[in-house]
């Protein structure tokens, strides 16, 4: 079949998918289709027609791409869409334009004003859930003492604090928002870069970009271009609002992805966000590139058009040429890895010795994002992302601005990673963008198929701080404390390839719960005791909702472990105990996502007491509160990063704990596990090995029980 015939056939076939593709997929198909049959856009952009503007923009984004290349890219994308959604049994007559017209008026932030307020759970319900959660960690005597404390709290000061919390909730659409930002992030004084930030490996080495020297700048220019397209989608409010089923989710965190930076304060940090949508006004459009401790900037837009990959390549090449064979820069970026109060004091001194230093800081803070040109080669494979993940989380502090909402890390072997400040948004925002990048890079085979023409764009400008001996001493101290901590962090990031989501769902079990219970089983097999565990629950159904704590170490999970290691119990007993643990986990997760968890509620009560100048209630001083994970003391800090190719990593929440992030695909489960080497009780590699054994054990149990 000729390419033209294949193109025409698949253009008809793609209209017959079972499930409507996403708006972005439809727009990508439309833009490629128009570029293939017409060539470059040949009409003016519509003014009032929202759908027409979105379609015109999608077509315009392919400008410079040859018609043959567009046709080839269209065929590849259409095949992926058909594979993803499957065919209808009969063609129902809905074409691409009809699909687009149904929902394109939906704008990125259009549901913000109609989202429900974050609820306050019933006091009695939260305290009952709290008692359930501490039970696995208590002796009978300890549990009775805690139950008495909870009973007194409920009848006394807790009741008063709850009423004050309800009053607060009547005046704020999200009663938790400011408190959570301050308590979890802005008031925290330990260094952010290792202890709070999250990082992760780029997935591109799984397909068209395996490690290859000499590709760094060319590949980086393509990733930057796709990232800028995503920024433009948000800026023009064409990024489709995310939903849980038909329920819209809060999109406010997407405003924080670009042009955002945390700024240190002596007692409390602040977040500065310079992003604006097109309707709100001008938005900064410059990038910052850091290479060998030196900082450069250039505008990513010229004459209203985003720079093309060839133009970006020229800018990056200029930066690299400036730095090669020259001494390293002062490495002022390392200050962002310092303890927060020390960094605040160092920053104040830096701005006092020369006002121009403040101008440079403002340029960095307001930039779209930071590109770090890294000289390391963290060789990784689709089965072993360890080197890449470790380098992303613990790499050179002089080439990352740790307070930026997004640092794109480009390594010398053509692989990629990212590191991000956690304060302005949760990981799922970055996951959404990185999944978009991965799909775009995959569909274009990692190549730029547009014009190679390069406009006369101004060269990057180097940003040179005025420094003196004290600043150099501050930088040296920051690097030393960072490198000591970084060398103490152990990371393993492996793919378990025996099975994945498909096999688990075939057994009618929830894949996330399957992984969580395997983790619980593994921990208890190693330590012969329950491990307090945090799993992230998303509360974006509510206005400015972020997360709630879901505690997977339930009494049902502990009972199941006991049955699993009891040689007198048969497969049926083990299966029944496992299903009880599954059901309890699923119930608690569902409630947490509906704003009915208890940890954030208890935090609110604690903070009300603090604000009112009241003594800390006994409930929060009870040893079982911390032993069960309360107050940020969870031994296992875990999160499902999603069902895509994107993975992240974090440091453990406590010194004797683990960070455990994972992603689940049809045929594999990829996880990153972290531990502190200086804690002789923990070992990330051992936990991974036992965890994999538990996955096999659970699937075998689910299989034999079905016979």
Automatic annotation (TrEMBL):
GO BP term, example: fatty acid beta-oxidation
Compartments reported by the entry: Peroxisome
Record-level GO cellular component terms: peroxisome
Recorded superkingdom: Eukaryota
InterPro entries: Acyl-CoA-binding_protein (IPR000582), Acyl-CoA-binding_sf (IPR035984), Carn_acyl_trans (IPR000542), Carn_acyl_trans_N (IPR042572), CAT-like_dom_sf (IPR023213), Cho/carn_acyl_trans (IPR039551), Cho/carn_acyl_trans_2 (IPR042231), FERM/acyl-CoA-bd_prot_sf (IPR014352)
EC number of this enzyme: 2.3.1.137
Pfam families (alphabetical): ACBP (PF00887), Carn_acyltransf (PF00755)
Residue numbers annotated as active site: 422 (proton acceptor)
GO MF annotations in UniProt: carnitine O-octanoyltransferase activity; fatty-acyl-CoA binding
Reactions catalysed according to its record: 4,8-dimethylnonanoyl-CoA + (R)-carnitine = O-4,8-dimethylnonanoyl-(R)-carnitine + CoA; octanoyl-CoA + (R)-carnitine = O-octanoyl-(R)-carnitine + CoA
Keyword Transport among UniProt keywords: yes
Keyword list, A-Z: Acetylation, Acyltransferase, Fatty acid metabolism, Lipid metabolism, Peroxisome, Transferase, Transport
Protein's pathway: Lipid metabolism; fatty acid beta-oxidation
Residue intervals of the ACB domain: 3-87
Family statement: Belongs to the carnitine/choline acetyltransferase family.
Name of the protein in its database record: Peroxisomal carnitine O-octanoyltransferase
Organism phylogeny: Eukaryota, Metazoa, Chordata, Craniata, Vertebrata
